[in-house]
Amino acid sequence: MKITILAGDGIGIEVTRQAVRILSEVAKFYQIIVEFDEQLIGGAAIREKGSPFPEETRRACLKADAVLLGAVGDPEFDDLLPEQRPEIGLLKLRQSLGGFANLRPAAAIPSLIESSPLRAEVFEGTDLLIVRELLGGLYFGQPRGFNADKTEAFNTMRYSVEEIERIALIAFESARSRRKKVTSVDKANVLETSRLWRETVTRVSEKYPDVELEHLFVDACAMHLVTNPSRFDVILTENLFGDILSDEAAVLTGSLGMLASATIGGKIDLYEPVHGSAPDIAGQDIANPLGAIASVAMLLQHTAKHEHAAEAVETAIKNVLEAGYRTADIARGNYQNVVSTSEMGDLMVQYALEAANISYAFHSV
Ligand code: IPM
Ligand code: MN
Predict the structure, then answer these.
(1) Is the pTM of this model over 0.90?
(2) Is 37 a catalytic residue?
């Protein structure tokens, strides 16, 4: 596998370093040959190359089997126009790779249940997957811009039947390997794009009689996520709604730092933690690398198609938490076992290899 590494900005650099370590070690164990190529994106790329998504980075990504990204965003560039900011690097990357389906799983981890902002009895048993459309809607719709004297600004929310169909198919296929329920989220009481969304998703659902479909308005969905999150299986939604709901869903697990994402459906798959560059804690070796490491598990699953390797990483995350290790973001009160980013990386290498060895012994008997 050829993997292009885009650590990006802020804590992206620290967490990606640990994620790459785990990937190398687990790949070595399973004799998967991995070649890494590190490139610049975001603020780091603006500083060194004058562009948030340099041509060199684009070329390297298009040659890879998958891209592993850290995070993008740097307050140094807060005053720049949207089209010059670090974030545009990420949007251009997504567009170049072509992945339109952003998968963001969020599940209750029993050993972390006390870290959830929800009461344990509300959050317990939650296991959901947000399927977020990633290349359409307000993020990319034209026309967009300001009027001449900047007294007005506008963006366009636009969706075609084809764009809705292809993301709906991914949601229904995902639901088939889960609990067979899709909640399609829209604002069909107000928006035309949502009317089309609802009609199209309903039509696609006819090919999946074994999967239950429900429709929810986005405001109601936001409410159900905090009052009854375990009612959800797959949440299918458009780009901006998915952006907002996935932060909400992620933080229910205890920390944004825990969550991973995969972007599939295009030429090249993209893996990134859901969290951002967190400039306030960058460079202090205290960020949680588990979201980045969980993204490695998704890479091993979807791109490498290596079930055992993916499982070893997932089991290791579960075990390291059960053993009581916590980074600061998920440690409550005056917790004793607080570890740094790099210590969590050390532990994860050890636990992943242990899980791999156990599953290896198990599968060879
Ligand atoms: C995310 C981020 C990005 C998005 C930003 C950094 C452009 O918030 O991946 O959720 O809005 O998609
Ligand atoms: Mn977001």
Answers:
(1) yes
(2) no
